[in-house]
Amino acid sequence: MKIVSSLLPPREIQRSIREKFSEHEFHFFKQMEQVDEDLIADMEILITYAEDLHPEIIDRASSLKWISAMAAGIDRMPIETIEKRGILVTNARGIHAIPMSEFALGLMLSHVKRLADLRELQSNKTWNKWLPIGELCGKTLLVLGTGAIPEEIARLAGAFQMNVVGVNRSGRYLGEHFKKVHPIEQLNQLLPDADMVVSVLPSTPETKELLTYEHFERMKNNALFINLGRGDLMTLETLKRVLEDELVGHMALDVFPEEPLGADNLLWNYPNLTITPHLSSITENYLPRAFSIFEHNLAVYSGKADGDYLNKIDLTKGY
Amino acid sequence: MKIVSSLLPPREIQRSIREKFSEHEFHFFKQMEQVDEDLIADMEILITYAEDLHPEIIDRASSLKWISAMAAGIDRMPIETIEKRGILVTNARGIHAIPMSEFALGLMLSHVKRLADLRELQSNKTWNKWLPIGELCGKTLLVLGTGAIPEEIARLAGAFQMNVVGVNRSGRYLGEHFKKVHPIEQLNQLLPDADMVVSVLPSTPETKELLTYEHFERMKNNALFINLGRGDLMTLETLKRVLEDELVGHMALDVFPEEPLGADNLLWNYPNLTITPHLSSITENYLPRAFSIFEHNLAVYSGKADGDYLNKIDLTKGY
């Protein structure tokens, strides 16, 4: 059985998986473009970041039975074509909670501790002991969504004695780290109390362009807004107007309506915007964790282990 | 009774304390230099950051019976002169744990998430999704000291699933957040395993110049070293040699052998050193918390409340 990976994990991981599954033929590539026609036609399993697929590749991959997406978002895959063929799809859901919650807390602490201003003072060789510094302790954090990543953000923010509030579709909540969870309809009432608002929402028809200029008008004018989820949470126009009108104290965005940002993009210049290049979930531990899920699923697929697939996607629901 | 403060709290705090203790006469100043001779002679209680006292002031303050230090460190006070006069000294011990532990975690997260490099990418308008980002999760943190502030750092680092190890004089430990505490004699064996080393040690004869060049040689060459305690933990010469020889990956110092750093100080220029101006403990919540301790002690002093003084200093021990 031929297994193709359109991403290149560290040699250590390649060696380990080849050893454990020596009955299969593994082909690792840096990108999809490097995979030749014959191999595309022959591969039964494809390991991918789920951004390099289009209907035409799926058509050519006539032996393909399983796509192992090493990402959480599968919104850039040709779902319809894949569903028609009955191809199994799994993803890497769950491995994002630790790196993304750490990233969120890093941005939050960096903001209250004014690390960027302190860095600026250092480059100006200025000792200013009286720069006003804040705390997370006692502040109110509003998290959009209450899934695995929001839950981990809530747990960490709770450790810092923050008042952590969440919103989701129904307002139902069975976890333990949010102090209170409200239905999304109450968002407008919640925004004025939040010192920080964090979104890690995926892109779905319901979340697309969910946030409007009016939502930002309701936030505190010194609030910190962070989006690590998907860039279509608001339109580019909304984003620019909110920044220009300084409706919040600062924004930190890891995702944008269009990515990557080109060098001529005007967003780079806003002093009230921190830009990071869609990497909050990617750390040294990402591929080890993703391949550990893949190994479990490959053992199930090969009949070497009993049990269910981890993170099997229901394509009709999209998650 | 005349109460002088050589520091100026927000009006809200001044009003509140005047209301609660209307039988006393409060005088608030921005600094000691503004207090006139008569008032110095008449004041019975002095509220101070404990950096503006010298023997000659104590001599002139002939009515002085209580110094309420709104700081933790009292190593810059003329202890001998104060002790001879039998003046009561209290400090603000305990209110530093939250802001300083938040600051430590902020520096740690900023380091692994490479927020300074990401900021640099933004100013160069460069989208680089493949900048290698790290995690706190799974890393080993060594904290020098196991008092209230280290304990809070250990609690937060534990929430991030770090492996938190401590050292203190005896190796005895009754808290719950360190995984293991060793006696200081074992420091050399512990340093090679630490991904991060944090010191919040006060200045005492035992901690003065405790760390030598050889200690840094034993650390990982990508380790992060943070000092938020006192700047005399190592000599200026050690500090410079360690930075020049790049013995560790990065240093973040809030305290220095000599403070403040002048504009001509060479330390500003080291790319492997983050300089912050001795403010890790100072936040918007500092004075509210410090005055809440003072109010308790003033009620005891005035006979309005029973109980003991909070944070009474034993001058013979220095803490």
TrEMBL record, chains A, B:
Residues 105-280 form the D-isomer specific 2-hydroxyacid dehydrogenase NAD-binding domain. Keywords: NAD, Oxidoreductase. CDD domains: 2-Hacid_dh_1. SUPFAM superfamilies: Formate/glycerate dehydrogenase catalytic domain-like, NAD(P)-binding Rossmann-fold domains. One of its GO terms (molecular function) is oxidoreductase activity, acting on the CH-OH group of donors, NAD or NADP as acceptor. It holds the Pfam family 2-Hacid_dh_C. It comes from the Bacteria. PANTHER family: 2-HACID_DH_C DOMAIN-CONTAINING PROTEIN (PTHR43333), D-ISOMER SPECIFIC 2-HYDROXYACID DEHYDROGENASE NAD-BINDING DOMAIN-CONTAINING PROTEIN (PTHR43333:SF1). This is D-2-hydroxyacid dehydrogenase.
